[in-house]
């Protein structure tokens, strides 16, 4: 499928999807295209940049960018640990109770199994993974 930016002779802009460039040309020639605003059949393609998949391989982020990301994740984790209640392995039960109004509304964190997380998400309970704790200096090479 190809998406074209289109315009009529009165300047109304809209878009259309076509199976190929030939499909667009055929529909214009047969008078099948018209402006959705004014019904003009004088429809033309507008100039647009093609969406071309890049061939450049992306590797690991630059060291400075990686360091910046690690610091941001560490700050987020510290904020949660400093301001939210750690409910341990009762996370799924407590998150569901808060969502259903059966427990006090507050920020929590803890552990949940993949099955528990899947069930919470399916039920519309807002959850997100906590960034991992940074490695301890004694664990680094």
Summarize the structure in words.
β4 (85-86), α3 and β5 form a beta-alpha-beta unit. This protein has helices at 21-29, 63-83, 91-99, 114-122, and strands spanning 2-8, 13-18, 43-45, 85-86, 108-109. The protein is built from 4 helices and 5 strands, in the order ββαβαβαβα. The mean pLDDT is 87. By secondary structure, it is α+β, with helices and mostly antiparallel strands. The protein folds into 2 domains: 2-45, no CATH class; 63-132, no CATH class. The chain has a 3-stranded antiparallel beta sheet, covered by helices on one side.
Compact overview of the structure:
This protein is of the alpha+beta class and 141 residues long. 34% of the residues lie in helices and 14% in strands.
Q: Which ranges are low-confidence, i.e. pLDDT below 50, for 5 or more consecutive residues?
A: none
**Sheet with the most strands?**
3 strands, antiparallel
Taken together, the total number of domains comes to 2
How many DSSP E strands? 5
- Percentage of β-strand residues: 5-15%
Largest sheet strand order: 2-1-3
Helical content class: 25-40%
Shape: elongated
List the helices and strands and how they pair.
Layout (H helix, E strand, L loop, with lengths): L1 E7 L4 E6 L2 H9 L13 E3 L17 H21 L1 E2 L4 H9 L8 E2 L4 H9 L19
Key features?
4 helices, two-stranded parallel ribbon, 34% helix, 141 residues, three-stranded antiparallel β-sheet, alpha+beta, elongated, 5 strands, 2 domains
């Amino acid at each position: 499928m190809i998406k074209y930016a289109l315009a009529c002779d009165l300047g109304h802009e809209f878009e259309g999807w076509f199976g190929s460039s030939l499909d667009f040309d055929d529909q214009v020639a047969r008078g099948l295209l018209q402006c959705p605003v004014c019904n003009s059949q004088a429809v033309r393609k507008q100039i647009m940049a093609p969406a071309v998949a890049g061939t450049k391989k992306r590797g690991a982020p630059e060291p400075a960018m990686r360091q910046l990301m690690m610091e941001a994740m560490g700050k987020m984790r510290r904020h949660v640990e400093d301001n939210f209640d750690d409910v341990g392995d009762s996370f799924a039960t407590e998150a569901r109770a808060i969502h259903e109004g059966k427990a006090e509304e507050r920020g929590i964190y803890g552990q949940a199994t993949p099955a528990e997380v899947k069930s919470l998400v399916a039920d519309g309970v807002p959850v997100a993974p906590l960034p991992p704790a940074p490695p301890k200096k004694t664990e680094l090479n």
